[in-house]
Known about the structure:
This is Heat shock protein 75 kDa, mitochondrial. It holds the Pfam family HSP90. By secondary structure, the protein is of the alpha+beta class. It contains 27 helices and 22 strands. The protein has 5 domains: about 1-85, no CATH class; about 120-320, Histidine kinase-like ATPase, C-terminal domain (Heat Shock Protein 90, 2-Layer Sandwich); about 330-465, Ribosomal Protein S5, domain 2 (2-Layer Sandwich); about 500-585, 3-Layer(aba) Sandwich (Rossmann fold); about 585-725, Four Helix Bundle (Hemerythrin (Met), subunit A) (Up-down Bundle). Strands 5-4-3-6-2-1-7-8 form an 8-stranded mixed β-sheet, with helices on one face.
Amino acid sequence: MIICYFINGNGASKAQGKCQNLVKINPKIKIIQKIFFGIMSLSRFSRLLAFRHLRLVTRNHNFTNINSGRISSCGNQNLRRLLSTQTSPNEDEHHSIIKDTEKPTGESTKYEFKAETKMLLDIVARSLYSEKEVFIRELISNASDALEKFRYLAVSGDESAKKIQDVDRPLEIHISTDKQNRTITIQDTGIGMTKEDLISHLGIIAKSGSKAFIEQIKEKAAAGDNNIIGQFGVGFYSSFMVADKVDVYSRAVGEETGYKWSSDGSGTYEIQPAEGVQNGTKIVIHLKADCREFADDDTIKNVVNKYSNFVGSPLYLNGKKTNIVQPLWLSDAKNVTAQQHNEFYRYISGSYDVPRYTLHYKTDVPLSIRALLYFPEGKPGLFEMSRETESGIALYTKKILIKNRTDNILPKWLRFVKGVVDSEDIPLNLSRELLQNSALIGKLRDVLTARVLKFLQEQLKKNPEEYEKFYKDYGLFIKEGIITNYNMTEKESAANLLLFESSHEAPEKKVTLNDYLARATDNRTIYYLAAPSRTLAENSPYYESLKSRKQEVLFCYEPYDELVLMQLQQFKGNKLVSVEKDMREDKNANDLTNLGDDSLKRSEINDLSAWIKEKLGDKVAAVTATSRLESHPCVVTVEEMAAARHFIRTQSHSVSEDRRYAILQPKFEINPKHPIIKKMYTLMGTNPVLGELLAKQLFANSMVGAGLVEDPRTLLTSMNDLLVKALEKH
């Protein structure tokens, strides 16, 4: 309530008084008082932004003016409770029937859960997956698992291996479509199934034969790098999303008899012996009338390319091989050529350029990660700059696509990076469409982000000229990462990549914050100055004093550069300070003992300062003299210049001029040695009208020089008035 009282225009002092009174009435208001005084202890602009943000929050949540004595309904109950002055919630008479009176007696009997099979099958087949097309991914994955089981048994050396030693055939997956009969057939040359397998694997929902096989080989300590995908035992039933009927023909390797399994998804299935069944499994899907598009060659080709283009075995569609692109992220980096990288980058990004940088990354600690990341050569367009742009990272697990655009694998500011991340440790939900276990996904994100930042730092050291070209195109993303990041380690790591011009280097030569520190003396401060160009920076009144002391200063030419450094606050324990703030807080700047004979006397300075304050009125918080200026007559300082300039660019149009000056609270600092200031002192007595015009024009010029005027053209009228008055005697 106190904060609401303040931000609804009642002023800080009244709010503080109101706060003290309410604490006496209700001790629980004490925490609100602490919040209020905590915000009031911030700098003026930080305080302004905090209150302004809170005001927007209360407005968005339907808070009415606190002076009206009521707060309307609000979706955010926590915020409403925070701002409430109610001493305690309304308490009704206590009523409960819960009592600990129960005590088991007799022996317990154990029963198994039962399920309505038809209803369960309907849920799995029709409610589990968001897209019908994923049934193709699921059946191809099952076929791939059958081939992987065959490969394992062929080299395992156990009893099962003897059955397949004489089997000589290519391990492949084939898909055929038949528009006329409205069918799609998927066949593999894998391990096949016995009658018992058909009953246990297809007749029991959510029993995974692949998962059981993995557990079996783990027990034999021979799991190694298995490529088996299945784990839930529900993928096969996705076929009923599109099928009126599903027929499965299968013959296990080493068996003479094949079998046909058939079901229409109604809750029952039939199994019968069948002749002419090849080793492996063939699934014939009789499509529903409204799913006839899945009997189309092009439709299936697009789905295969989207989800299953990197399965480990050859995949044929109507006799033509479709998976011709290799999963390069699983290859050894030294064996992949630049041409292969170029082709793969174009394939996954849909671009026509080539990658500028390539990061081929493999690790098994702390997670199993196989990643291939590309940094584009071309400049980002307006669409790519938008934070609404989707991530360019495709997420795979064991070469099967899980999500084509995965936003939470890399932070939003790295959305320009294209590539593939494959991890066996990724926790998936039942449909393999959503990620689970946010802590593990967060760990994956942290590992990848740290590696990307380290990689870019390596490129900066290895070839600064090439990195500078990259930074020119993509530096804005790095700055966004610093501003939006709450992880201080990640924020400072990204700060290693920033580039600036320096007062100690030639124009166009860029330096890093580390370069600055390497040249620094005992001073634990990194100085920076924001200006549109180097010429303006070197001629800035704020730079004069540091220049005379030969203090290195970083030049920020882009409007957001100073916001980045203001948000960063420090780098490796060294404070980042704008030269404007340094001038305002310099206690020695007001030391006027050694001004010399060419300066106004102290009494004259005091008289002139008071007179200027009177003429400028509420536009200035104070008028003082400074000893830090040499060639400039005056300067304007505010508490947080970067925040002030950001306010002018983004919000000043919504407030009046008087309110704007009240918010900025500029301090007008004059140079008592400058001829213009000394002349103004003379005009104060001889021609006060001209002196006043001069004082106002100098103040306006200083506001322009500080970047605190949105449109300098507004000063033309006052400038013309000054010229008219100055030329009256000529």
